[in-house]
UniProtKB/TrEMBL annotation:
<dbReference type="InterPro" id="IPR008621">
    <property type="entry name" value="Cbb3-typ_cyt_oxidase_comp"/>
</dbReference>
<keyword id="KW-0472">Membrane</keyword>
<keyword id="KW-0812">Transmembrane</keyword>
<protein>
    <submittedName>
        <fullName>Cytochrome c oxidase cbb3-type subunit 4</fullName>
    </submittedName>
</protein>
<feature type="transmembrane region" description="Helical">
    <location>
        <begin position="18"/>
        <end position="36"/>
    </location>
</feature>
<dbReference type="Pfam" id="PF05545">
    <property type="entry name" value="FixQ"/>
</dbReference>
<keyword id="KW-1133">Transmembrane helix</keyword>
């Protein structure tokens, strides 16, 4: 059975092979940034922000 080339197939292949690894890398970078020990104080302060009375 021969594969039929359509715009949908080409687009799907492009998204799968190009954008998926990029988005995975971006996700890993965001998680790494959020869990980096140097940023702990900043995130702790941001978490307490709604509870502050000013």
């Amino acid at each position: 059975m021969k594969a039929i080339l359509t715009v949908q197939n080409i687009t799907s292949d492009f998204v799968t092979t190009f954008w998926t690894p990029i988005f995975v890398a971006i996700f890993i970078a965001i998680v790494t940034y959020a869990l980096w020990p140097r940023n702990k104080n900043d995130f702790d302060e941001a978490a307490k922000m709604p509870l502050r009375e000013e």
